[in-house]
Amino acid sequence: MPSHFTQHRFHLPRILIVGCGDVGQRMLPILVKSFKVYVLTSQTEKFELFRQAGAIPILGNLDDRLTLQRLSQIASTVIHLAPPNPSGVEDVRTKALIQALSKGGRVKRFVYISTTGVYGDCAGRQISEVTHVKPQNVRAIRRVDAEKKLRAWGSQQGVSVIILRVPGIYAGNRLPIERLQKGTAALVAQEDVYTNHIHADDLARLTILCIYRGGSQRIFNACDHTELKMADYFDLVADKMQLPRPPRVDKETLKTLVSPQLLSFMQESRRISNDRLREIGFKFLYPTVKDYLDRT
Predict the structure, then answer these.
(1) Choosing a second label site near 213 at 20 to 30 A (CA), which of 58, 182, 244, 251?
(2) What pLDDT score does 176 carry?
(3) Which domain of life is it from (predicted)?
C-alpha cells in the first residue's frame, strides 16, 4: 500500500460500526473514502472480509462486557446495527455498549437502526414519527427500550443520537424467494395488512447521510414510498421471478399454516410516512419496490 495512502488514512476521522452485516457491508465502500473505519465483530472468520473492504476489525461481543472495554477511545461517530438480545424486555446489548462508550466520552454522534415495529398494529392508518409507540411483541419492546436508553444517554452526555426506524429490508439477496417456492399462504385482501419497505442500498446511504445531516435526538422513518399490502408485495416478486403467486387464505386458516413468529409479522398493519426525510434531502435510488423490480 502506498505510503501517501497510509498517511492520508491516518488523518481521517474515525467511525465505529457495531454489527456489520449486509447493510453495514454496503456502507463500507462509501465510508472508507472519508473515515478510518472500525468494525466490532464477534466473528473472527470475517476479519479478512472487513480488511479487504478497507476496515479495521475489532473482536468484541455485546454479550460480554469485558470485550467492549477498548471501545471507549476508538471513534467519535458510531453506527449501531446490531440486533438486541433474543429474549427479555430490556436491550442489555445496547446498555452494555452505552456503558462502554461512556467511559471515554469521545462519542459525539451516534446513529441507531431501530424498527417500525415499535408502532405496533395501526390498523392500516398512516403514521409519522410523532405517532406514539405501541409495541405488541417482545422484539419491538426491546427496540423501544434501546431507543429510550440511547436518547437519555445522548441528552446526558451531549451525544447527537439519530434513530432510524426501519421496515422490511429487501435487495436482490433479500427477496422472499424461498417463501414463494414453498407456496406459503398469504392473507386474503380484506384481511391483509399494509407492509413497508426499503432497499438495503438505500438504507446504507440514508444511514451515512444521517451522520452529516441528522439532527440531534431526531427520529426518522426509514421507509420508501411503497404502499402495498403484504400479499400484493409477494405477487410482485412472484411475477418478476416467474414463480406462482401465494395462495390467499383467511386469518383463521393462516394460523394453522404458519409459525407464531411469522404470524406476528402478518398481523400488524401500518402505512409509514417518510415525509421527514425531506429535511435532510434524501433521494431514493429505488423509490418503490416496483421501481427496483422493473430495473432488475
Answers:
(1) 58
(2) 96
(3) Bacteria
Retrieve residue 22's grid coordinates. Answer: 449486509
CA–CA separation, 34 and 13 (whole Å): 7
CATH topology of domain 3-170+197-224+273-285: Rossmann fold (3.40.50)
- Closest by Cα among 143, 162, 135 to 151: 162
The torsion defined by the Cα of 294, 192, 200 and 282, in degrees rounded to 10, comes to 80
| Strand pairing category for 168-170 and 197-199 | parallel
Task: Tell me the one-letter amino acid at 170.
Answer: Y
Q: Which residues, other chains included, contact 151 with Cβ-Cβ below 8 Å and sequence gap of 6+?
A: 161, 163, 217
Q: For the segment 220-275, what is each residue's pLDDT rounded down to a tens digit?
A: 999 999 999 999 999 999 999 999 999 999 999 999 999 888 888 899 999 999 99
State residue 105's pLDDT score. Answer: 85
- Dist CA 99 CA 149 (whole Å): 11
